[in-house]
Design goal:
Blueprint lengths: L31 E5 L2 E10 L2 E5 L12 E4 L4 E5 L5 E2 L3 H11 L1 E5 L1 E3 L2 E5 H4 L5 E6 L2 E6 L5 E5 L4 E3 L11 E3 L4 E7 L3 E5 L5 E5 L3 E3 L9 E2 L14 E6 L17 E9 L7 E3 L3 H9 L3 E7 L7 H10 L1 H17 L4 E5 L8 H18 L2 E6 L11 H4 L5 E4 L18 H13 L7 E6 L1 E7 L5 E8 H10 L5 E3 L4 E8 L2 E7 L2 H14 L3 E5 L6 H11 L1
Parallel strand pairs: 1-11, 6-19, 20-21, 20-33, 21-23, 23-24, 24-25, 25-26, 26-27, 27-33
Antiparallel strand pairs: 1-2, 2-3, 3-9, 4-5, 5-7, 8-9, 10-11, 12-15, 12-18, 13-14, 15-16, 16-17, 21-22, 28-29, 28-32, 30-31, 31-32
Helix pairs in contact: 1-5, 4-5, 5-6, 8-10, 10-11
Length: 544
């Protein structure tokens, strides 16, 4: 199945990664006691997939923001950004969000019959720090009299008193968040989430000078990823409908994960759907992945093509869409945005380029990478002005797959090597710089069943794992096709003869050889869940 698809900064801000303790608890729906400023609240919360979840019933009592409303029926929190003190990377981006983003939302999750929200996502809006340790969730309100600070990259010592004996020292973990309540010439007086007071040398921690208690949301400029001359990268999309899958374990063959999180709402005035998960981003970062949020024009939704035209031609709709795409991307701390606009009219080529140029203005200000996906260069894909688009993106991914798609009248390879070569050479000849080009790689195989008369009876797409199971169960030995440069197999199936051009280690290896041959940036895979664990070692070997 083919992919149809942030006042000047005074300090090095820690808000995005603020309060991220080293979670030592496994995912579960077990509940954990919640403490606020050292006192029990009587509430319990949860830790699931990197997220700290609190009951929405705490909003209005312990947690307050008049511009945040609970929509229990819609299972979401609505955030009126026009009423909030928002600070993005610069004044221009801040003005965009304040003036155009309007009301956005954060999905709620029902856990053990309790409607909950992710504190990872909402901590800034409620001016509340959190820590998850010792089997409990500890909350602490931002305090104007106490500055937030963070321990450096190494564990350090602290003392319960400036006159404490050596054996009374405690150890502060690397990256741990603390609060500065006072200072001497050489020491900071600090407190933790339980209200315990210690002293540590000033050189041990970095202090956040911003008064966090006055700000609803702050998104400083990130340090944008820049690919080195000889470095190759691999991007893997992850399809998300409503629920984001688990963040993968460390995978050396993948550098960037691109979940399909934000979709333009057809006839929604520029509003965007939100299927994101902050815990996913945090776990991905912890495991060594960058995250690029994939934004779409909702191409599979009826009316999307016409509404895309409307958005391109209506500046107010376009500004709202861009404002929401940028805000959501910063809210979920991603490292980049991947544009996947499909089923765009040929006449909207300039509109797509103009949209990309405008989005680029703000991704640059926020320090986010920007990439775009395009179809292969053909007379019928002129909606993508690849030469012009490449001026405004860091990467252009050519979706060099579905050579033979679900609607094809004849069976064939999803992505034969000649087809991929044609796609790469076509993009390069159209002016796309090699160092910006990503080669699309399918992680799926299509099984074509042909009846006795040669008519296609079915053509289901299967994952690499499923295909391997078929080969094993039927004890099949594939034949290597020199033209397509991939393995092929036939077998009897319900409805006729199954014909399969297999995506496996052989086809991936042959395809990845093109990365170095043409000197392109790397590859982009649709999609992560369709590949086997073993296939990523091939990417690691040939790209890294």
């Amino acid at each position: 199945m083919g992919k149809r698809r942030k006042l000047i900064i005074f300090v090095i801000c820690m808000l995005i990664s603020l309060m991220c303790a080293q979670f030592a608890f496994a995912d579960s729906e077990d509940s954990y006691r919640i403490y606020y400023d050292g006192k029990s609240t009587g509430y319990s919360g949860f830790y699931i997939k990197g997220n700290i979840y609190l009951p929405v019933s705490m909003i209005g009592s312990y947690l307050n923001n008049s511009a945040v409303a609970v929509d229990t029926a819609g299972k979401k929190l609505t955030l009126d950004l026009s009423r909030m003190n928002i600070m993005m990377a610069d004044s221009e981006t801040t003005a965009l969000i304040k003036n155009y983003a309007g009301t956005v939302y954060v999905p709620l999750k029902e856990i053990n019959d309790t409607l909950c929200f992710s504190l990872n996502t909402m901590e800034q809006f409620f001016n509340t720090s959190y820590n998850f340790s010792d089997g409990s969730i500890k909350l602490k309100a931002y305090d104007q009299s106490a500055k937030i600070a963070k321990v450096g990259n190494n564990a350090v010592s602290a003392f319960p008193s400036l006159f404490a004996e050596t054996e009374d020292t405690i150890t502060l973990a690397a990256g741990e968040q603390v609060f500065v309540n006072g200072e001497t010439d050489n020491f900071y007086k600090i407190s933790d989430f339980d209200g315990n007071v210690y002293y540590t040398e000033k050189q041990n921690i970095t202090v956040e000078d911003l008064d966090l208690s006055t700000i609803d949301f702050y998104a400083p400029r990130k340090s944008k990823f820049k690919q080195s001359a000889n470095q190759k990268i691999n991007v893997a999309w992850q399809y998300v409908n409503e629920v984001t899958p688990d963040a993968p374990a460390k995978t050396d063959g993948v550098d960037i994960l691109a979940p399909t999180w934000f979709r333009l709402i057809v006839e929604g005035g520029g509003a965007v759907t939100n299927s994101a998960d902050k815990g996913y981003t945090e776990l991905c970062h912890e495991r060594g992945f960058m995250v690029w949020a994939t934004i779409t024009n909702n191409m599979s939704e009826k009316g999307s093509t016409n509404f895309t035209t409307k958005m391109f031609s209506d500046s107010s709709i376009q500004k709202k869409a861009i404002a929401q795409y940028i805000f959501y991307s910063c809210l979920y701390d991603v490292d980049g945005i991947n544009i996947d606009f499909e089923d765009v009219k040929d006449a909207d080529a300039n509109g797509l380029t103009a949209f990309t140029k405008e989005l680029r203005n703000y991704t640059e200000r926020q320090g986010l990478n920007l990439s775009i996906d395009t179809l292969v260069p053909k007379p019928w894909t002129v909606e993508y002005d690849r030469d012009a688009l490449s001026n405004y993106v860091d990467y252009l991914a050519v979706m060099s797959y579905d050579e033979h798609y679900a609607g094809s009248t004849i069976p064939g390879s999803v992505s034969s090597l000649p087809f991929v070569i044609e796609a790469i050479e076509g993009c390069l000849s159209e002016g796309v710089p090699a160092e910006k080009l990503l080669m699309g790689v399918p992680m799926y195989t299509r099984i074509w069943v042909v009846d006795g008369s040669g008519k296609i009876a079915s053509n289901s797409a299967v994952t690499m794992t499923h295909m391997n199971e078929i080969l094993s169960e039927k004890n099949l030995t594939p034949t290597y096709l020199k033209t397509e440069m991939q393995n092929y197999v036939e077998y009897q199936a319900s409805g006729g003869t199954a014909r399969v051009w297999i995506e496996d280690q052989t086809s991936i290896t042959n395809r990845l050889s093109l990365v170095s041959k043409y000197g392109i940036a790397g590859s982009a895979c649709w999609q992560f869940s369709q590949g086997t664990e073993e296939i990523w070692t091939v990417f690691d070997r040939y790209l890294h």
